Each structure stands twice: as structure tokens, then as C-alpha cells.
Amino acid sequence: MQRTFSIIKPDAVRKGFAADILSEMDKAGFKIFAIKKMFLSKTQAQGFYAVHAHRPFFDSLTSFMSSGSIIAMVLEKDNAIADLRKLMGATNPANAEAGTIRKQFAGSIEENAIHGSDAEDTAAFEIGYFFAGYELV
Ligand code: CMP
Hints:
- There is one protein chain.
- This protein is of the alpha+beta class.
- The chain has one domain (2-39, 70-136): Nucleoside diphosphate kinase-like domain (Alpha-Beta Plaits).
- It has seven helices and four strands.
- A four-stranded antiparallel sheet has the order 2-3-1-4, with helices on both faces.
- The radius of gyration is 14 Å and the shape is globular.
């Protein structure tokens, strides 16, 4: 079993898509190991996306991510990291395959409904950024 980290982003929560996205994860065989609804500050969003600090969209992205509630979770499954990336679809929903979460629920390359870790080291950082050890038992 492998763990990955995911966020249902403020656009999808605002539009009422959270339950649909959780259902897609369930159908694809992911188990929710930990989950919480949160409201990120701009500073917390900047810390999470620090790897993108030099990108032109950083300020806009971190404002968006702190614009409303998010749902943060740790998911468990064989091959969870790659399988969640596949289920999510391309970053830009215009390029996402039919049936993927972003194709169904995302509105733009920034407001793209869902985040998923892209590798084992980023999953470890992202899980540790959002969840304390006592929340992962
Ligand atoms: P995510 O998978 O969370 O990783 C970084 C995020 O930055 C990405 O999803 C998008 O929300 C956002 N992003 C990536 N590329 C762009 C872009 N070209 N313009 C605006 N936002 C982007």
C-alpha cells in the first residue's frame, strides 16, 4: 500500500463537487486514511506551494487556495501516487481525458478542482505539512 496526499480545492468545494470527487476516489479503489476540512491562510498556501514561488502564477494561485474551504486528505492504495494523478487528469482541464476528475469538475488551469502529490518525496512533505502524527493512526 502506498499513501498520497490530495486536496479538493476551493473552487470544487464552493461548487458543491466535494462529494462527487470523493465518490470518484472511492470507485477507483482509494481508501481515505485521514481527512479534514480547512481554510488556509495566504501564508499557509505559500508554504505549501513554496516550490512554485518563482512562477508567475504564484501570487494568484496562493490567493485562490486561501479563498475558501478546502478538503485535505491522505489516501491509501497500491500505486496511489500515480493512480491518483491518472484519475485527476491533466493540470489544464482543457487537456484532461474524458472521465477524469479535472475534465468533469475543473474550470481552468488554476482553479482545477484537485491537487495530488507527484512523487514519494513530495507526498511525504505534503502529508507532514497538513497532518500531525496523531492524526495518522
Ligand atoms: P497543482 O497540481 O495543485 O500544482 C500547482 C498548481 O498551480 C496547479 O495544480 C494549478 O492549480 C496551478 N497552475 C499550474 N500551472 C498554472 C498556470 N500556467 N497558470 C495558473 N495556475 C497554474
